[in-house]
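help with this.
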Amino acid sequence: MQILGYMATVSKDADKEPWYGQGHEAIAQFALGRREPITDSDLKAVQRALKPLFEAKAIALERRGAFRRNAPSTARYGLNLELPLPVDIAEMERQPDE
């Protein structure tokens, strides 16, 4: 949840659909509190932490990260910050006939 909170905080409010694209290094440092220099184990921790967000459909990969020489690879993730209600509210308010 702290990663999703960080992604939502740094996404631009003016965008119609929220998205995150600062990279895994930024997630490791600012969301997980890892110290620079960011190591491979830090990046693996980010990947492990992102997995449940993908499974819950809280984030979706919109663009894969492209290799950049001497710079971090940044993917673009769409953020799903509005969760649908599991059932219809009207259906919950109805009392069964007894």
Q: What stands out?
A: The mean pLDDT is 85. DSSP finds four helices and three strands in the chain. Strands lie at 19-20, 59-63, 76-79.
